[in-house]
Structure formats: structure tokens, C-alpha cells
Amino acid sequence: MSKIDIKALRALEPAVLSVGSHPATLQAILDFDFLNGRREPSVKAIVASGRKHERYFFGTREVVIPVYESLKRVPAKQKQAINLFVNLVSGRRVLNTTSELIAKLPKLAGGVIFAERLPERHALALYDQAKQHDTWIAGGASVGLVIPGSLKLGAIGGVEASQFTASNLFTAGQVAVVSSSGGMVNEIIRVVADSGWGVSFALAVGGERFPIVSPRDAMLAAEADPQTKAIAYFGELGGTDEYEIAELLKTKRLTKPIVAYIAGTVAELFETPPQFGHAKAMAGSSKESASAKRQLLNEAGAKVGASFADFVNYIKELELMTIDKNSQDTDQLSHRQKGLISSSLSYDVDGEVQILGRDLLDLAENHSFAFIVMSMLLGKQEVSKETEAFADFVLRLLVDHGPYVSGAMNSIVTARAGRDLVSSLSAGLLTIGPRFGGAINEAAGTWLKGVSQNIKPADLVEDFASRKRYISGIGHRKYRSDFPDPRVKKIIGLTEGLKDRKFTDFARAVEAETLQKKGNLILNVDGAIAAGLLDTLSQTEGYSLEELADLVDTEFFNALFVLSRSVGFMAHFFDQRRIDEGIFRLGDDHVTKL
Question: Of the given ranges (23-27, 261-265, 590-594), which has the lowest mean pLDDT?
């Protein structure tokens, strides 16, 4: 197994990924970070289903941690930064999820598996994979690793800030605490703190039959750590871990003093050894009994208590440097209240409006309307000049298409009925959908699917034809291949400077197929905007295929149409108020009776 380097972990700037969500555990990690003076939360992302973010507190400030449905959806930049993990999913999902982390996170130092009942063959597979990738894994059934003042990975040390204070987890001490049992690790941390020594680090290796990090690994980590001067170890009946520890003592690979206690002598009163709480806590032979292992460690040089009380006294009798009890202001953490809504877009700071962390007046004075629109719609503080230019042209191009279309018609009819501006605008907006105005987003989805799935344009056209469906973004009533739409040429020209125009190329390839069927099945304005915007976001904003798919799911590609055409709808409202023709009514000859 790759060794755990406590000194290196102490110096590490932790970037933690949680697989699965357990709010109490994750909030405890963030509280530990805050109380130890860290400026930002160490938990950077969560892989789970059901939502796109979770809200937590960092001190008294609410923070949002992004949630991704799979590791694949975690942004590449974030995956490059992650160096630790906590796996909080069920035992049956541990192997696949942990294997993926080890394979896909290049800077991964190690992590913790919380789940119990991890199948033995899964644990052994993870052991081999961790060794191959030079990383370490505590668990299964581990509450984690804590390095006072530096790192908390899991529920170890408690989940309440008051528990951190009682255990003095804000200053590094000199005693390493090691056990398979999460509950006993926490108990011994408190004993060490009450003795005045303080903990250098504490590790729950996990209560499964085959923990991936063994007590032997933990002992070697303590031996190599210059901060650690002594080791407190709590073991149990069952297994042969103590034989490995004894061998380290006998061969002088472990030289630091060990005080220990091995629980489970009561099992020796039974004719058939009972199974205790952990999977490994059952003596299969006299060699694995608590008494045998106590004697073994004593003979090897450890100081082993005959009772737990003896063990506690041995800890108190260690000759180490005492550390002061650091009491942090934890009262502030008990009066936190979550906001009713969360927003990453805009907020008020001392009476001044900020948009994406920038002063609104500064944005208005120094940037175009298109820049502000795209920044806000994408939730990005900065957007490229190419994105700004593309949006600016589209916003101008889509502003109106005459009084003939359904949206404008509804605004006009509502205005002539004497309704107000907002009612007329709303009437027009409510007609936007698959048959009017919604084709840009549908076209974007089609081009994205074609590119991401490597679909041949001819196959895509045939698929639509077989289902008797129109291809959004293709076709026009007026323009044909021999009479092209000049607007499409302008839109495509906006992306000519991009290195890769895979979406535009795909859309044009689809057009080449449809034109073989009919001359007016050309790429239209909706299809050109969709392709151009996909290429621009991909090339200049760095959006992945998965992130572009998220934009399609939220109808992002219709946003510029909705915004721009709102101007046209309002213009028609004011035009009708100026003309003042009165209420609109169809004549008898305008209605066909069926």
C-alpha cells in the first residue's frame, strides 16, 4: 500500500471531492476549515444526483457547493485540482465510484470510504488500484482522518464545532491516535486532549475485515511524521494486525512509544467466539484473541493496558510537551440561518448593486449591453469579444419580423383591447414555443447531438424523415438554394475567425443533404444562430459538450430571441396606441365555418 505522508498532508492545500452527500459530515468539514483559519472551504464539489448545488455555511456566510451527477460532469479544471476525497455512498457503489476517482483525478493523494459492508473482493481490488496509482484509502467503514490545524476528512472528531473545541483540534499535538473503530478514535482523541498532549493526527482505518489502509500502514505513517512523538492504539479481537505491529517494534522500524488497549477479552468466556460490532471483530483462533494480542504487544515493547482505565492512565503518563487549550468562538456558528433563496448572479453590497461580483455602474459605463446580457445569462464575470459581438448582432437582427407572426399579432390584439404594456408584452411572449421562436434551442440540441454522437448528416436527415418530423433550423418559405438568405451569410461570417466550427460545419452538412430533397430546405436564421452560438461558446468560452447540453436543457439558446423580440412586441404595443383603431374583431368572411 502506498504510504500516508502526514507531513505532506499537513502542508497540503486540501481540495476535497465528496462522492455522495451527507450534510452533517460535509458541514463539519467546513466548520473545521473555518475555525482553523482557512479562507475557503476545502470541499470543492459533490458528485450526487438530484440537484445542481447544495448550500452550506462557511462560518456565518452561506456558500454554494456545486453538485454534479457524475464525475464526468465535473469541469476539467476542477478535476485537475482535486487531491482528496470522501466517499459517502453505499457499500455496493463504492468500488465503481472510487475506482473512477483514482483513475480520473491526476493529483489524488488519498481519501476515505465511509460505507460499511464493503465486499472483501472490492476492498482488495481497491487496494491493488491504490497501490498502482500511489494513493491511499482509509476504509471501508472509516470515519476518516484528522490532522489538527490542517485537515479534517470525514466525520472523525465529531460533527459539532463544540466537539472540535473539546478535542482541541485547532493545534497540532504529539500523539497519533489509530484504531479500526470510528467511535473509539473519537473517544481517544478526547482522552489525549484532556491529558494536555494534543493529537498530531488521528486515523480510523475502518472496521471491515480487509481495510485498505491497515493499522501497520498507520503506524509507519506515525513513525515518519516528525510531529508525532507517541502513538495511542485501540485494537480488538480478531485479525492479525497486532502481529504486524509487533514485528515493526521488534525490527525497530517502529521506535516511537506505543500505548495500546485490545478490547474483547470477554469473548473468551464463550465456548464459541461471538461476533462483535465490526466485521473483523471475531476471533477465529486463540491467536486472534484479545489476550493473545495484548501479550504479544507487551512482549514487543508496547505498553498495553489490562483495562481501558489502565490505557487512559498510560496516555496521561506520557512524557510529552503540553499544548494550550484553544477555545474558538463557536457560539457564532449556533445562530446561523439559511437564506430563503440563493443567487450567484446579483446582490446588494452596502446599498450598491453588484452583478457577478462587479459594480453595476462600472459594467454600464465600460461594457456594451450585449456583454452584460451574455455575462448575466451565462453567469460569467467576463465573456469573450467574439461572444459579445455575436450576441450584439443577433440582438439587433431578431428585434422584429413584422406584424404577421403570432407573437406580434397577440401583442397587437391585446393592445387594441385596451390592455397595458405588460399585458401586451406578456401576450406576445406566451406564444413563443416550438412553432414560433423556439426553433433556435431545438436546432442547437440537434446540432449538439449530431456532433457529440458522431452522427452522419445523412443518417440524421433520414431519422427525422422516418419520424415525419421537421428539422428545426432547416427550411424557409421565401429563400432557396439559388436565392439564399443574406442574414444567414452574415451570421456564419461572425464565426469565421474561430479555429474550429464543428457545429456550423455539421449544420451545413445537414443542409447539403436536405437540399437534395427540396430547394428551400436551406439552413435558416434559427439554425445558423444555434450553430454559431454553439461554436462561439465552445471555442471562446471553453464550454464542454456536457456543459452545452446543460444550456440546451435550460432553453438558453432561445434567450436572445426572447430578449430581442420583446422590443418588437413593445414597439407594436406603442404603435397600436398611436394608431388607436379600437378593439380588434374578425369579420364573418374571415372565419371558415366547418
Answer: 261-265
DSSP 556: G
Q: Is 286 within the bounds of a domain?
A: yes
Percent of the chain with pLDDT over 70: 95
Pick the closest to residue 143 from 132, 128, 157, 129 (CA basis).
157
Boundary (domain end) residue, out of 285, 316, 347:
316
- The rounded radius of gyration (Å) of the Cα atoms in the chain is 33
Cα separation, 509 vs 450, whole angstroms? 11
Inter-axis angle of helices 559-579 and 406-416, to 10 degrees?
40
Amino acid at 54: E
Average pLDDT rounded to a whole number, residues 378-389? 95
Nearest to 278 by CA among 118, 92, 156, 127: 118
Give the end of a domain, one of 316, 343, 373.
316
Cis peptide before 59 (omega within 30 of 0): no
Q: If you ran DSSP here, which 8-state letter would residue 395 be given?
A: H
Residue 297 one-letter amino acid: L
105-125 mean pLDDT:
93
Query: Strand 43-47 and strand 16-19: pairing?
Result: parallel
Using the predicted structure, report yes or no on whether residue 283 has a pLDDT greater than 60. Answer: no
The conformation of residue 418, written as its DSSP 8-state character, comes to T
How far apart, in whole angstroms, are the C-alpha atoms of residue 524 and residue 451? 19
Amino acid at site 178? V
Domain, as residue range, for 52: 6-316
Whether 303 and 411 share a structural domain:
no
Longest dimension (CA), the chain: 109
What pLDDT is recorded for position 336?
A: 87
Query: What is the band of 281 on the pLDDT scale with cuts at 50, 70, 90?
Result: very low
Nearest Cα to 182, choosing from 264, 278, 92, 93? 278
Decide if 222 contacts 11 (C-beta within 8 A). no
Tell me whether residue 326 is in a domain. no
Give catalytic residues, as residue numbers. 278
Q: How far is CA 189 from the centre of its chain?
A: 31
Residue type, 235: G
The CATH number of whichever domain residue 563 belongs to comes to 1.10.230.10
Q: Alpha-carbon distance 496 to 535, whole Å?
A: 10
Q: What is the pLDDT of residues 58-74, one digit of tens each?
A: 999 999 999 999 999 99
420 and 297 fall within a common domain: no
Give the per-residue pLDDT at 282.
47
For the entire predicted model, the pTM comes to 0.80
Does residue 68 lie in a domain region?
Answer: yes
Question: CATH number of the domain that 150 lies in?
Answer: 3.40.50.261
For residues 541 and 439, membership in a common domain is answered with: yes
CA-wise closest residue to 18 among 113, 112, 117, 85: 85
What is the C-alpha to C-alpha distance for residues 76 and 104, in angstroms, rounded to an integer? 10
| Pairing of β 258-263 and β 303-304 | parallel
- Of the chain, the end-to-end C-alpha distance in Å amounts to 82
Indicate if the pLDDT at residue 249 is higher than 80: yes
Element (H, E) at 179: strand 175-179
* Residue 112, phi then psi, degrees to nearest 5: -130, 135
Does residue 307 fall inside a structural domain? yes
Number of compact structural domains in the chain: 2
Q: In the predicted model, is pLDDT for residue 276 greater than 70?
A: no
Helix (H), strand (E), coil (C) string for 263-295: ECHHHHHCCCCCCCCCCCCCCCCHHHCHHHHHH
- Contact between residue 195 and residue 168 where contact means Cβ atoms under 8 Å apart: no
